[in-house]
Amino acid sequence: MIHPWLQETWQRLVALGERLPHALLFVGPAGLGKRDLADALAARLLCATPRPDGGACDQCTTCQLRRSGNHPDLFMIVPAADMEAGDGDESREGGERDAGSAKKKSTQIVIEQIRDLQQSLSVTGHQSGRRVIVVDPAEAMNPYTANALLKLLEEPPAGCLFVLVSSAPRRLLPTIRSRCQQWSFSRPAAEMVGQWLGAHEAPAADLLALTGGMPLAAQRLAGQGALLARFVRDVAQLPAADPLPLAGQWDAWLKSKEALAAGFGIVQLVEWMQRWVTDLASLRLGGRVRFFPREEGVVRALAQRSDVAAVLNCYNELARIRRVAQHPLNARLMLEDMLLRYARAVAGPRS
């Protein structure tokens, strides 16, 4: 299924037909459906009898192979932590996977995956001769992996189409970006997304505010209402409460069945904290609440007593923490550091 805000882009891809370049780079914020579009394009290219609208028929032999996950000419290059879940940038928005075994698996795309791909591409295709390689998220490649993929992009085997999906294209090698035709995705119109969320029985306004207008991220967040309510309750009680015991509670919370079942992890928790402090800083500087409009009263009360320099410093430190949140050396210590900085920021200026 092509989401309504991607229909125009989809038609442009279909219209290219055989004029598609050998490598595409889909870039834009997570939660827009970039991976869904990459999957639909792969399905179309491998289908023996595409429908008039350009989509795969889902009935032919090649489609049945693809749907079963056994198509020999479709290569999904994703982190090991994503393999069991079988989904891409949309469900990855803000957190780790929901299985206890997945949390220990690599969140990187490793060089062995590209070496296996090189070996597979050294022989001719099994079906129509066309082969499709989807790399998602492309920024999950470490430098060694990226350089190995670059060699394939420089001298692509005949009949191969590479589709790279990225929410952080600046983390890609410039040489990789230069060898791909870039397709940029931006936030869709709020009215269209609101109608889509309404059709999926999800409250639109608050969810879209917190996710920055990203529709699939908002849909996912609709199932995390209890988690979000706890987060708001906990941060609102600081600095009156002691941040160190709260860090311990959050550490246990992230390992709970509730959090794992919802795919809620430390990355998403840090992102919520970033957005909460962003609203706090915005109000403190005379702006407006952007991410937590329902909690404006709480945020405003905190902003009125907070120290502006401390809030801005907390915002900068949260950006640093977010960069390492995917691979924390010690999650408990990281949570303590984050909450201590926040508590100092909202404690008010020192007398």
UniProtKB/TrEMBL annotation:
Catalytic reaction annotation: DNA(n) + a 2'-deoxyribonucleoside 5'-triphosphate = DNA(n+1) + diphosphate
Organism classification: Bacteria, Pseudomonadati, Pseudomonadota, Betaproteobacteria, Rhodocyclales
Protein's UniProt name: DNA polymerase III subunit delta'
Region of interest: Disordered: 85-105
PANTHER family: DNA POLYMERASE III SUBUNIT DELTA, REPLICATION FACTOR C / DNA POLYMERASE III GAMMA-TAU SUBUNIT
NCBIfam families per record: holB
Organism: Aromatoleum anaerobium
Alphabetical keyword list: DNA replication, DNA-directed DNA polymerase, Nucleotidyltransferase, Transferase
Gene assigned in the entry: holB
Domain DNA polymerase III delta subunit C-terminal intervals: 268-342
InterPro entries hit by this protein: DNA_pol_HolB, DNA_pol_III_delta_C, DNA_Rep/Repair_Clamp_Loader, P-loop_NTPase
